[in-house]
Hints:
Elements: H1 3-10, H2 15-42, H3 46-71, H4 88-96, E1 122-131, H5 137-147, E2 151-159, E3 164-173, H6 178-187, E4 191-197, H7 206-219, H8 224-232, E5 236-240, E6 259-261, E7 264-268, E8 274-278, H9 286-302, E9 310-314, E10 320-326, H10 331-340, H11 343-350, H12 357-364, E11 370-377, E12 382-391, E13 394-401, H13 410-424, E14 429-434, H14 439-446, E15 452-457, E16 460-466
Parallel strand pairs: 13-14
Antiparallel strand pairs: 1-3, 1-4, 2-3, 5-8, 6-7, 7-8, 9-10, 10-11, 11-12, 12-13, 14-16, 15-16
Amino acid sequence: MNDATLTKQTRRPHPWRRDLVELAAVFTAVAVADVVAHLVGRGPDGPALLVVSAVALIATAVFHLWWARRHSHSPPAHAGPAPGGASPAASGAAGDGGAAEDGGAPGVGGPPDDDGERPRATTLWRMRTTVRDTPGSLAALCTALAELEVDILTLQTHPLASGTVDEFLLRAPAALAPRRLTAGVSAAGGSGTWIERADAHDLVDTPTRVLGLAARTALDAAELPFALRQLLGRCTVHARPAVSPAGRSTGELPPVEGVLEETVMRLRDPRGGSFTVERPHLPFTPTEFARVRALLELDDRLGPRVPRGRDVLALPEGDEITVRRAGEADVDAAAALHDRCSERTLRQRYHGPVGDARRYLDHLLSPRFGRTLAAQTASGRLIALGHLLWDGDETEVALIVEDGWQRRGIGSELLRRLVALAEEGGSSRVYAVTQPSNTGMVAAMRGLGLPLDYQSEEGTLVVTAQLEGAALSPLAERPVPDRPLTGP
Length: 488
């Protein structure tokens, strides 16, 4: 409704027009009364006509009163469209400020397709683009997406000094090509646009995902590299100790506040060493840098922690062993295990002579560089260790089993669990570096039932397993029923 229509509807008639109408009504009433008086006074049926008229008027008044009381609260049977093309339901919702008849919100619900057509196929996209920090820039971007029939599911903003990085989760028609989508965003003022396919896991909003990652990190210190990858998307996380196992310095540590250099983050580990996070395809924002620092601070405040879950398993000979997570508190027990192992077993594990095993164990049992599973007897003596070591996008697995407990399936059991942990952590493949003569390790890798690649060079064999679905779930938090171990 425009201003002219509103003015026309609210204009009042002039007072003199109303006076003329009232005066004409008075003269008309007098003339009618004079005619009726002559008919009643001079006609033979005058009194009867007056009685019939009075009865008719009373009957009409009674009928009108009954009809008004019966239909005063009934809605119209068929309501036409409201002014402006709005439906009666929409007009009522707008006027009353309430919900629709079905109890839902106005404009929400109802059949998706009234004409019976099947819904169109859609695709989820994650998109990040930079816009100028001026009023209306985001509105122009949203308008361009609406013209392409793209639905915005979530939106995050990352303020910068010279603009704002907007990160979207979009649902677009499947027929919409990525190039057309990015071209529309560029025409609306977006620059440095990056886009990739998303899946249902991305539908979780960012605060919920961050809280979930913080909870996982709080339960297990080894979850930190995995949490960083989940928080930042596709990236490579390198954890470096301050001193290598050989006793040499690994380089200058970054400052306490960390360093952000476009596609690289360098942060100091509060426990010693440093973290380097790389994402060549997409620069990091200060908001992401702040999130990573907060996660590292949480990890430092919680201190060392290892999940307490363990499984009691039965060997074919009737002995029982316990499989559990191991950590830095197990260094002494792990060193005693190495002391009981033969020179041949140590050479197969470390590919050379081992002087002081404790130097390696401090690194191997640290949650900063991976996870460790331990097998121990009923008396608490460690008889085997399985290590899962993060190596960028790949993951290394390594096993050592005490000589008297080899060839009884313990190594295979540890390996299956390590592979499941690697798959849960987002690794696409795991590899084992061993010697061709180490038939036990080769057989354990083949027993996974996964596609394997073999590479031999200068007496070293690298066996790589492609993770298309690990055969065994990770170590549970609760004991499971006893079951025998099988395999090599």
